[in-house]
Automatic annotation (TrEMBL):
EC annotation from Swiss-Prot or TrEMBL: 2.7.1.17
Annotated function: Catalyzes the phosphorylation of D-xylulose to D-xylulose 5-phosphate.
Amino-acid positions noted as binding substrate in the UniProt annotation, renumbered to this chain: M79, H80
One family name in Pfam for this protein: FGGY_C
Reactions listed under catalytic activity: D-xylulose + ATP = D-xylulose 5-phosphate + ADP + H(+)
Record-marked site positions (Important for activity): D6
Positions of the catalytic residues: D235
Keywords of the record: ATP-binding, Carbohydrate metabolism, Kinase, Nucleotide-binding, Transferase, Xylose metabolism
Organism of origin: Shimia sagamensis
Location of the Carbohydrate kinase FGGY N-terminal domain: 1-242
Designated name of the protein: Xylulose kinase
Length: 484
């Protein structure tokens, strides 16, 4: 038996599978996020531990024999979070999350520093780890002075499980401290933000074992002694492992809290100016590239809260098929934006609001705005040489047939939907656990899912959506000029 744990923005998910990857059970527990100021987003590490204990307790209650037979654990998690620990491994402050953008000034300074983009392969985004720690150095100097280790979110869970300070390449690539081409910490990048190599965890490939679960934790979770813990992966790399996106052209579109357009790459091909993320994959000798928008289903959830209607009911108003773009426009920059704008201060907007506009029109505008932003991501990926031929859709938003057809048409790519089952980050983490425990070849373990249906672009509506996208592209600089 193997377990994949996914530490998501809203909670912890645990997936229990057997050696043939048959799902035995899955459990979830929520985690609270605090937003004490605009642009801030924090979580308590103790909340992750509490949630992890809860999902194991629920799995054990339903599947006691299977939990007692677990051999390996893999953990995935939201990237870029900054966990500052003292010499005893105790957190000095809450984790600063991936969508915490308070460090925009520090990010801009690091991004302008000589060799930073060249070595890291990426723009230094405000959400990355290094600028967050630089913010702490400037604003909480006592905490910075006591910092002995900095761990990413899933690495903190691995530390709790094993007592070992470790990280994998895919997650570490999003810190601005890793030489992504060389797959090693860069002393030059560390020096640029006042950090030292001894403050970093040891590096592993995601499919490597880092150690075993501590006996006391194993007893508390109902695990046998000696359970192997894999290095794991950042959430998007884990999701790529979950759907078998390992090689050039293998890609997915994720409609989760954030929106991601990702492709595997066989070689390192960064283009930082595009604002495309170029990261190490979770398996050896592979990389991946992705465009990221910060508010995908978050945009729909925002609308849902304000209209006091569920997201599912809002999308049902549109039916299952697109019929052409609306006249209202929505800019989905509710928390700023990454690809292609790298703008932490930009905020969202509605335009062309008509007095007759109701819930359906507002929902259509939101789905179109997110989809236009994903098209921005595709154009950025193309500029790096990426060659996507088709996509698999994952995430909660992929349950809307309307939204999937819209994205397929705007990207002019067929989008496949897997058959019901597990194929996301939790499965990818469990697959990494299989590799770490058994030594199996990732190419054999990380196969693509069985497809239920493939949604083709609507050629009859292609021109009208292309014209609407051309109008959308003009909006960012205009709104930016009005709001700064």
């Amino acid at each position: 038996m193997f377990v994949g744990i996914d530490l998501g923005t809203s909670g912890v998910r645990a997936l229990l599978i057997d050696a043939s990857q048959r799902v035995i059970g899955a459990k979830e527990a929520a985690v609270d996020t605090a937003r004490p100021h605009s642009g801030w987003s924090e979580q308590l590490q103790s909340g992750w531990i509490t949630a992890t204990k809860a999902v194991f307790a629920d799995l054990k209650a339903d599947h006691p024999a299977e939990v007692a037979a677990i051999q390996g654990i893999g953990v995935s998690g939201h990237m870029h979070g900054a966990n500052l620990l003292d010499k005893n491994g105790t957190p000095l402050r809450p984790c600063m999350m991936w969508n915490d953008t308070r460090s925009a000034t520090q990010a801009a300074k690091l991004d302008a520093t000589d060799q930073v983009r060249d070595l890291s392969g990426n723009i230094v985004f405000p959400g990355f780890t290094a600028p967050k720690v630089a913010w702490v150095a400037e604003n909480e100097p006592d905490i910075f002075a006591r910092t002995a280790k900095v761990l990413l979110p899933k690495d903190f869970l691995n530390f709790w499980l094993t007592g070992i300070f470790a990280s994998d390449m895919s997650d570490s690539a999003g810190t601005s401290w890793l030489d992504v081409g060389a797959r090693d910490w860069s002393d030059t990048l560390l020096d640029a933000s006042g950090m030292r190599r001894d403050q970093m965890p040891d590096l592993f490939e995601g499919s490597d074992a880092i150690g075993t679960v501590r006996d006391d934790i194993a007893a508390e979770l109902g695990l046998p002694k000696g359970v192997i813990v894999a290095a794991g992966a950042g959430d998007n790399a884990a999701a790529a492992c979950g759907i078998g996106a390992l090689n050039d052209g293998d890609g997915f579109v994720s409609l989760g809290t954030s929106g991601v357009l990702l492709t595997g790459r066989d070689a390192y091909a960064p283009k930082p100016a595009s604002a495309v993320h170029t990261f190490c994959h979770a398996i050896p000798n592979r990389w991946y590239q992705m465009g990221v928008i910060l508010a995908a289903t978050d945009s729909l959830n925002w609308l849902s809260r304000n209209l006091q209607e569920t997201p599912a009911n809002l999308t049902k108003l549109l039916g299952d098929n697109i019929s052409g773009p609306g006249t209202m426009r929505f800019l989905p920059y509710l928390s700023g934006e990454r690809t292609p704008h790298n703008d932490a201060t930009m905020r969202g907007a509605f335009l062309n609001i008509d007095i007759d506009a109701g819930h359906a029109a507002l929902t259509q505008a939101v789905l179109e705005g997110v989809s236009f932003a994903l098209r921005d991501n595709l154009e950025a990926l193309k500029s790096t040489g990426a060659n996507l031929q088709s996509l698999i859709a994952i995430g909660g938003g992929s349950q809307s047939p309307y939204w999937v057809e819209l994205i397929a048409t705007l990207l002019n790519l067929p989008i496949s939907l897997p058959k019901a089952g597990e194929f996301g980050a939790a499965l990818g983490a469990a697959r990494l656990a299989i590799c770490a425990t058994t030594g199996a070849d990732p190419e054999v373990v990380m196969t693509r899912p069985e497809i239920a249906t493939t949604v083709s672009p609507r050629s009859d509506l292609r021109d009208s959506y292309e014209a609407a996208y051309a109008d959308f592209v003009k909006l960012y600089p205009g709104i930016k000029a009005l709001t700064q």
